[in-house]
């Protein structure tokens, strides 16, 4: 597997070919609040530690600008009888309620296949929603996957994930119900990123396949 950072890997097109194998390239956008665990989820997806993570000191965010990391997973799945690589292009974002659409568009001019919403289980959430619809259009839910991090805290508290969802904020519960890719609970304090990421990669690929690998266009003309 090759690890490519930032712009080292040119975009191959949604479907390309490499050494006679098909390559499916998916653009993935991480969204969420400060310290939600976005960068850790990005590392799990990529199977590395390229995104800087950490506790923010004196209110300064660890992730301060959009960052793209790419990784090719060889022979990740079979498509129409042929072995296919999966190339993930994962965009980490600063903690903002609204990502800067121009930055996302610059990194993913062809659009975004999967929106990964990251929220942490051990902190309360308010009901502020992102302007997803304004940014990605009305079909954004079909491309959304919710990842709840810090699942280790739920385990410690003896709380089952489904019980957690009944007790959490309205917006998180609504998102869990609306997201086409459903909800994944992860404990990012355990295992190697690559191992943690495998079920997320599978889920992400399944979701994108359900959307026939169509990408959402990021609307840059809206003033937010
Ligand atoms: N215990 C635990 N810690 C986590 C988990 N996910 C992330 N962290 C830690 O939470 C802090 C913030 O994570 P980070 O990925 O940088 O969050 P970001 O600000 O949203 O990018 C870091 O110190 C991580 O190591 C988790 O699932 N469990
Ligand atoms: Mg971060």
TrEMBL record:
Domain (AIG1-type G) ranges: 26-189
Gene3D superfamilies named in the record: P-loop containing nucleotide triphosphate hydrolases
Keywords of this entry: GTP-binding, Nucleotide-binding
InterPro entries per the UniProt record, alphabetical: G_AIG1 (IPR006703), GIMA/IAN/Toc (IPR045058), P-loop_NTPase (IPR027417)
MF terms (GO), sorted A to Z: GTP binding
Key word Nucleotide-binding present: yes
PANTHER family tied to this protein: GTPASE IMAP FAMILY MEMBER GIMD1, GTPASE, IMAP FAMILY MEMBER-RELATED
Record-stated family: Belongs to the TRAFAC class TrmE-Era-EngA-EngB-Septin-like GTPase superfamily. AIG1/Toc34/Toc159-like paraseptin GTPase family. IAN subfamily.
Name this protein carries in UniProt: AIG1-type G domain-containing protein
Organism: Zoarces viviparus
